[in-house]
Amino acid sequence: MNILSHPILSCEEARAFEVAYFGDDEALEWTAMQRAGCAVSSALQRDFNEIGPFPATARVLVLAGKGHNAGDAFIAAQNLLENNPQATAEVLFFFGERPLRPLACRAWRALVHAAPERVRVITALPRDAYTICLDGVFGFQFRAPAHPRVVELFAQINAHPIRFRAAVDLPSADLFQADFTYATGIVKTTLLQAACAGRVRYLDLGFFDGMNPLPATRNRLLIPELLAPLGALRPAISDKRTYGHVAILGGSRGYPGAVLMTALAALRSGAGLVTAFVPETLAPAFAARAPEVMWVGWPETPSGSLALEGQHLLKARADRLDALVLGPGAGREPETLALLCDIVATAAIPVVIDADALQPEIVAAGNAPRVLTPHAGECSRIAGTTLPSATIVRKGPVTRIESGSGLGPSYFNFFGGPVLARGGSGDVLAGLIGGLIAQTPGESELAAARGVLWHGLAADALARAHGQVAVSATQLLDFLPKVLR
Questions:
Q1: Does 320 map to a domain?
Q2: Total structural domains in the chain?
Q3: Within this chain, do residues 183 and 231 fall inside the same structural domain, yes or no?
Q4: 209 and 293 co-located in one domain
Q5: Are residues 296 and 423 in the same domain?
Q6: For every residue of the chain, which 3-state class applies, written as one string?
Q7: Does a structural domain hold residue 306?
Q8: What's the pTM?
Q9: Which residues contact 358 (CB under 8 A, 6 or more apart)?
């Protein structure tokens, strides 16, 4: 399946692409540098909102090397100063001003000309703290090892009080400890393993606009345009069954909240109908919380988990369902796990398998298409299991979507962040994916990619509005509409 995405290129592939794209046209390169610098500045100010409003009197430290990364950083700093008339910038040249390449030198002159009284060159770090540090020293053409003086200088910078550390394109020499790395135009595979990159932001400069076909690479990155169909007008002649029926099976006396969060997310996914099978003692309270869901009380084991004897409840409704989500809050009682295994083994519709249902014998049962949503610990639990009919959503700081067969592309999602590092965010994701699959039952991988992307973009919006700390997973739900509009 061709999922709308952009390629992630190796450094060699990126170099060859840029040579072909720019064709030694300095005017074209200068235009791209200006777009890159402005994009870095805009993205940086948006991301800064995760820790508070951008200060009017921001102090910006620019780390400059010789090449285009320095030029991007100079233009970003110029844009910051122009948008914030009380902000100041200090520039630390790692190799002096004379070695600057022509376009970087042009960008440096533009920065000084734009705000001469608010820009100064420093030769050593002062004691004062900085608001922003922009790393534009080394690009992807850097070759190790770095000079000991450079290593020592980066160590000093990493220890210096700086609220927000941003790298342009790549963290220099993998020495600069970035909070965010802004990949301008192309994401390089180096960033997938860079220990110092922090959170990666892809800044689309239009390099791939109108290109057909795009460079064929195994590693791809998800882009917001993938969600465009979800924000489009729906057909005037449609009803609730037009948009699918997703069923959720989970919950237990020990973990009652997870399945509720999954059901709430499924409601927000756009699915027409949502049915949730939960332990019978939980159903009344859940119905009061979310009356739009059809809550079906399921027989319980003595400890309050789902019992085998309730299978008839699902079978009686099976022909009306388009997708199934299993596992949120279900617990690991042997009888419940045996139930989940039986359901997967006989399922005739796509299944999302989440949380405690991620057991080797469950994920390998039957032949129905399935989406697995493991975090790192759950990935270890199911490692080695043959999963030819599965799409695997490997949750983490950068979530990756890939085929269980190991064939085909891997899709990386760079949206979201530490705001998702809390209980319940995975339950919301499972409900989103399940609801999206119900709307397109034959496109499970596409639905998984859209769910991951939507979830991540909502997380970014939440963190920018309320910060990363004093929030809850269910607040993600209120930012899902914003992403589509």
A1: yes
A2: 2
A3: no
A4: no
A5: yes
A6: CCCCEEEEECHHHHHHHHHHHHCCCHHHHHHHHHHHHHHHHHHHHHHHCCCCCCCCCCEEEEEECCCHHHHHHHHHHHHHHHHCCCCEEEEEECCCCCCCCHHHHHHHHHHHHHCHHHEEEECCCCCCCEEEEEEECCCCCCCCCCCHHHHHHHHHHHHCCEEEEEEECCCHHHCCCCCEEEEECCEEHHHHCCCCCCEEEEECCCCCCCCCCCCCCCEEEECHHHHHHHHCCCCCCCCHHHHCEEEEECCCCCCCHHHHHHHHHHHHCCCCEEEEEEECCCHHHHHHHCCCCEEEEECECCCCCECHHHHHHHHCCHHHCCEEEECCCCCCCHHHHHHHHHHHHHCCCCEEECHHHCCHHHHCCCCCCEEECCCHHHHHHHCCCCCCCEEEEECCCCEEEEECCCCCCEEEECCCCHHHCCCCHHHHHHHHHHHHHHHCCCCHHHHHHHHHHHHHHHHHHHHHHHCCCCCCHHHHHHHHHHHHC
A7: yes
A8: 0.97
A9: 327, 372, 373, 374, 378, 381, 382
Strand duo 162-168 + 180-184: pairing: parallel
Q: Indicate whether 202 and 322 sit together in one domain.
A: no
Q: Please give the residue range of the domain that contains residue 22.
A: 5-217
380-413 burial: b if 16+ Cβ within 10 Å, else e: eebeebebebbbbbbbeebbbbbbbeeeebbbbb
159, 194, 217 — which closes off a domain? 217
Same domain, 142 and 252: no
- Contact at 8 Å (CB) between 434 and 452? no
Contacts of 1 (CB under 8 A, 6+ apart): 443, 445, 446
Residue 442 lies in a domain: yes
Q: Which of 46-55, 132-141, 310-319, 468-477 has the lowest mean pLDDT?
A: 132-141
Summarize pLDDT for 345-399 with one digit per residue, the tens.
999 999 999 999 999 999 999 999 999 999 999 999 999 998 878 999 999 999 9
Mean pLDDT (whole number) for 136-160: 92
